[in-house]
Design a protein that fits this description.
There is one protein chain. The protein has 152 residues and is an alpha+beta fold. It has a single domain, classed as Thiol Ester Dehydrase, Chain A (Roll), CATH 3.10.129.10. Helix content is 20%, strand content 41%. The protein has helices at residues 11-17, 65-84, 86-89, and strands at 29-34, 39-45, 91-103, 112-123, 126-135, 138-151. Strand 5 (126-135) and strand 6 (138-151) form a beta hairpin. The longest helix is centred in the middle third of the chain and has 20 residues, at 65-84. The chain starts with 10 loop residues before the first helix and ends with a strand. 30% of the residues are buried.
Length: 152
């Protein structure tokens, strides 16, 4: 699927690449992909109906920061699957470390979260990603994430 990826990649295709499902699938589509540069841009539409808003400040709904980081990691997982092809497809990738996480502003219903992720390093069965989550072009969160792959 590497070189012939047709953009945008929809949620049905994303579900063939990573194991996450509702309510934990946090990438709605992929709008940009550069396999040579090892970078991807995914989108998560934030709606009032998200299940986490029921318990995360119901009178003033705010997307939990840990879920923004998870969304970045999931976009990184899609990138890994698309860039490594068959080598990655028999693996599950688990987040094992988060460094330098920053949260610059709240993400609320109505926001469109853009997930900009780049693979910084690949070390054996691990990948280090740097990700920035943006709303209206403004960075709302960023982090470096280490994920490790295992055979299913």
């Amino acid at each position: 699927m590497n070189e012939t990826v047709k953009l945008p990649v929809d949620v049905n295709t994303i579900q063939t690449l990573i194991p996450h499902r509702y309510p934990f699938l946090l990438v709605d589509r992929i709008i940009d992909l550069d396999i040579e540069a090892k970078r991807i841009v995914g989108v998560k539409n934030i709606t009032f109906n998200e299940p986490f808003f029921q318990g995360h400040f119901p009178s003033q709904p705010i997307m939990p920061g840990v879920l923004i980081i998870e969304a970045l990691a999931q976009a990184g997982g899609v990138l890994t699957q698309l860039s490594l092809g068959r080598d990655a497809q028999s693996k599950l990738f688990y987040m094992v470390k988060v460094d330098n996480a920053r949260f610059n502003r709240q993400v609320v219903p109505g926001d469109v979260l853009e997930l900009h992720v780049q693979i910084k390093r690949v070390i054996r069965n691990m990948a280090v990603y740097y990700g920035e989550a943006k709303v209206d072009g403004e960075i709302v969160a960023s982090a470096e994430v280490l994920c490790a792959g295992t055979r299913e």
